[in-house]
What we know:
The chain is built from two helices and eleven strands; from the N terminus they run E-E-E-H-E-E-E-E-E-E-E-H-E. With 142 residues, it is mostly beta strands. The protein is globular, with a radius of gyration of 14 Å.
Amino acid sequence: MLINGSCHCGNIRYELDWSPDPVEIPARACTCSFCVKHGGVWTSCPTGSLTVLYGDSRHVNKYHFGSKTADFHVCATCGVAPVVTSEIDGKIYAVVSVNAMDNVDSSMLIRGIISFDGEEIATRLQRRARGWIANVRIHSAA
């Protein structure tokens, strides 16, 4: 299943090739302060591939906080963060915002809440390497 998503103005777009086709999509609402304030609900397909395209990279901010092990790709124009990446051992892993999805029926989303409070950094990176999208490409048109 090819899933398209974007920030509100379309400057940050993504195409997630979810393979094999999902029957349902897990949607995890994170309880960290950034995600709570931004309504962050994330998903990933470890067997899929993700292409991220910046319309204008000058209008993309990468925000990181806490352990500084993840970059939230925030559009400087509309304020939406459709993608989060984490570099682990020289490789980029990612999750995408289900709220930024453009072509997914909401009935496919199985929503839940998840907390990573107190998680050790090594454990966090291992979890991401196992569960986040491992085939990630980021391109910029300008």
